Amino acid sequence: MPRSVGVWAAGLLAFLAGCGPPAAEPVRIGQVAPLTGPERTAGEHGRQGVQLAVAEAKAEGKTVAGRPLEVLHADSRGDPDAVGAETVRLLTINRVVALLAGPGTGVAGRLLRADESYGAPVVVAGELSDPSAWSAALSLGARPEERGRALARYAARDLKAVRAVVLTEAGNPVAAALATAFVREWPHGGAADLPALAGRAAKARPDLVVFAGVPAAFRAFRGEMASTGLHVPLAYGGEDAGPAAVSGGLEAGPDLYLATVWATEKLTARGQEFARRYEAEFHEAPDLYAAQAYDGACLLLGVLQRAQTLAGTPLRNELARTESFETVTGPLSWKDRRPRRPFFLVGVKGGQARVVQTVEPDGQ
Questions:
Q1: What is the domain extent for residue 218?
Q2: In 3-state terms, what secondary structure has residue 95?
Q3: Cross-strand bridge partners of residue 139
Q4: Can you give the pTM of this predicted structure?
Q5: 227 or 27, higher pLDDT
Q6: How far apart are CA 79 and CA 127, in angstroms?
Q7: Do 217 and 198 share a structural domain?
Q8: Are residues 242 and 308 in the same domain?
Q9: Where are the beta strands (DSSP E) in 185-319?
Q10: Does 155 share its domain with 235?
Q11: Percentage of residues in the chain having pLDDT higher than 90
């Protein structure tokens, strides 16, 4: 009898030891990014950036109203229709309280339209063609029209270009905004808008070609330009993707220029620490996709901590009240939801990228 009592007591102690207070349910954020398909590298780097931000928050003991943070990653698959479906699933089934859009071309607009009837706060890990149109969102990228104007000024003044051909991808609002701003800023009145065909561009005999489209199409076009015999500078005018995404694997070909917020040689002290941690964790150097997703997760966590509520309206209001944020690539502020931040003009020659000019926001 004593033995059976002892066994029962030991079992009770073991049961009680495992019956502490239940773990707090995590606060969930959703990220929609292309984890498969042609843009999977951008999506995977973005996911890794978010994972690093969440791991750092956990290590520092950061919580939201005493609850841990969790990020759910949804795969847009590079399919515009999938973006809306995944956004609704995250909001209705997974009950996320905020969303991170991207990286990935085309994610932001579709996600924001899907979120309109739900009103969850959104941070866009990239840029928007018209950020003031979305009351529940903040974007992290430099405005495309600013990048377009800066490219036009640099090409006319420093590259001494007189005649430019501008090729714009149909249906790409960021590329269209940049291309329009470039043409308006062009001082010589010789900018022509042609279909995106290398042969037709070469026949125009320009001394600068601006290609406003997605990075993959730009890389293919740069290769085609090399075969036309026209050796003039080429400017990338699509969604900001950083130097590696538009020049990777293309050591040969025309010199190219781009306007971007990502330049490893210009990282702030915080940015250098981010790069060190990212490389230690994932065994590769970070790129723009990783950095902006990391910044987006950090920004959303700060909003959640300040609001101390998970209700949609207070969270949206807290996001809207955010006036400034220190990204890993420099200071960022918003006025009427329009981002203002420094960015860089980068030249790539022989596969080597270097910053040729730092551009301060123009305030427009």
A1: 144-260+343-359
A2: coil
A3: 124
A4: 0.88
A5: 27
A6: 19
A7: yes
A8: no
A9: 192-194, 208-212, 234-236, 256-260
A10: yes
A11: 55
Assess contact for 236 and 213: CB atoms under 8 A. no
Residue 127 located in a structural domain = yes
Region at 208 (left for phi over 0; alpha for psi -120 to 50; beta for the rest): beta
Relative to beta strand 338-340, strand 330-335 is antiparallel
Q: Are 241 and 291 in contact (CB under 8 A)?
A: no
Given a contact cutoff of 8 angstroms between Cβ atoms, the answer to whether 233 and 159 are in contact is: yes
Q: Are residues 239 and 279 in the same domain?
A: no
Instruction: Write out the H or E segment, with its range, that includes residue 294.
Output: helix 288-307
pLDDT digits (tens, 9 = 90+) for 153-174: 999 999 999 888 888 887 889 9
Confidence check: pLDDT of 62 > 70:
yes
> What is the number of alpha carbons within 13 Å of residue 291 lying toward its C-beta?
28
Q: From the CB of residue 227, how many other CB atoms can be counted at a distance below 10 Å?
A: 11
> Bridge-partner residues for 347, per DSSP?
257, 354
Look at 276 and 4; give whichever has higher pLDDT: 276
Token representation of residue 295 = 């910044």
| Domain harbouring 114, CATH code | 3.40.50.2300
Helix or strand or coil: residue 253?
Answer: coil
Answer yes or no: do 218 and 349 share one domain: yes
Can you tell me the distance from the alpha carbon of 321 to that of 143, in angstroms, rounded to the nearest whole number? 20
Whether 205 and 292 map to the same domain: the answer is no
Domain count, the chain: 2
Q: Are 86 and 175 contained in the same domain?
A: no
pLDDT, tens digit, 9 for 90 and up, residues 247-261: 765 566 678 899 999
Fill in the DSSP letter of residue 303.
H
Task: Look at residue 302 and tell me if it is in a domain.
Answer: yes
Residue pair 115/136 in contact by the 8 Å Cβ criterion: yes
Closest to 137 in 3D by CA, of 145, 151, 127: 127
Check whether residue 134 and residue 154 sit in a common domain. no
Q: What does the alpha-carbon distance between residue 45 and residue 296 come to, in Å, rounded to a whole number? A: 13
Q: What is the pLDDT of residue 228?
A: 74
CA 232/CA 247 separation, integer angstroms: 16
Best CA proximity match to 101, nearest among 63, 145, 136: 136
Q: Which secondary-structure segment (H or E) carries 196?
A: none
